[in-house]
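Q: I'm writing up a methods section and want to include an example of the input and output format. Could you take the sequence below and give the corresponding predicted C-alpha cells, formatted cleanly so I can copy it straight into the document?
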Amino acid sequence: MSSRLCRDAAYVYAPRWAKKLLFVRKKSWFLPFLSFDYKPTLMEPGSTRPPSWGGEMTVTERRWRAHIRNLPHLVGKAMEAAGSTADVVLTDDVTVRRLNFRDRGRNKPTNVLTYEHPAEVILAFGVVRREAIEAGRSMAAHLAHLLIHGALHLQGFDHHHAGEARRMEAAEARLLARIGVANPWKNR
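A: Here is the clean output for your methods example:
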C-alpha cells in the first residue's frame, strides 16, 4: 500500500481465512490491522483475483472505476508488460497537485508521478481524462500509456533531452503494442 497515500480506499481483497481486518470508512485513513503477516491487495468489485503484476492498486478517486472498464486487469496488463512491480495509486488532481508541490516544487497537478522508494506510480484522474480527450484517445488507452511511462521512469528512462525522449517513446510504443494499445506517438 502506498506510504504517501492511504486514504479513501474502496475495496480490499483478502481470503476468507484472513480475519480481524479493520476497514475505516471513506474520508478517513485506511489501515488494515491483521493478527498475522498477510498483506491485503486492493481490488475492484467483481474481480476474482488480485492484480497479477506483483504490486498493489489503490483507487481513491471513484471516477476511475466509472470511466475504465475492468480497471485491475488493465493496470495489471500494463505493469506486467513494463516488467514493473511498483504499486499503482489512482487518485484525484488535488492529491497529485499537493504531492507535486511538496516533492517537485510545482503547484499544479501532473498526469503521473513516480517514486522509487517504495516504487509507486501515482496518476491524477482529471489530468489523465483531459489529456485523453484532447488526444482523441480512450481513457483506458491513455491510462495504459501513462502506467508504462511511469514504469519506464522507475527503470531509469527519462525525456529531458531529445535523444532520451526518442528512446523512451520507442520503448513505450513497443510495450503498448504488446498489450494491444495503439502507438500514441504515431502521426504527430
